[in-house]
Amino acid sequence: MNLEYYLDKFNKLIASQSIDEDSLDYSKFEEHLSLLKQLAILENSSMSVFDLYKRNYVFAQSKFLTLLGIELSDMMQKDLRCFIQ
Q1: What sign results for the dihedral spanned by CA atoms 39, 41, 45, 51?
Q2: Is residue 63 part of a domain?
Q3: 56 is a domain residue
Q4: Across residues 21-25, what is the average pLDDT?
Q5: Domain assignment present for 22
Q6: Within a 10 A sphere around the Cβ of 82, how many other Cβ atoms?
Q7: Is the separation of the CB atoms in 47 and 40 below 8 Å?
């Protein structure tokens, strides 16, 4: 099995999700964003939030991305594809 196989499985899983657009409240996420940023720094770890409705990352912070040669902006735009190039 190759990476494309797993990416295809992931995309099918995401596509199968049924999300009620009317129940989405992005203001709740914005309220907690500063806490997420602080936790990622204090814990000295990587953290990301993937929006299943928009199908992209809405938050990511990692000291390891530079070690992997991945720019944060690329991760936010390309989703999981940035890890398999």
Answers
A1: positive
A2: yes
A3: yes
A4: 92
A5: no
A6: 19
A7: yes
Which of the two residues, 68 and 11, has the higher pLDDT score? 11
> What are the Cα distances from residue 80, in Å, to 10, 21, 23, 57?
9, 23, 26, 9
Alpha-helix runs per DSSP H in 1-85: 3-15, 26-42, 65-68, 72-78
What is the distance between the alpha carbons of residues 41 and 44, in angstroms, rounded to a whole number? 5
Work out the pLDDT band at 83, boundaries 50, 70, 90: low
**Looking at the domain assignment, is residue 79 inside a domain?**
yes
**How many domains are contained in the chain?**
1
When pLDDT is cut at 50, 70 and 90, the band that residue 23 belongs to is very high
Domain carrying residue 84: 27-85
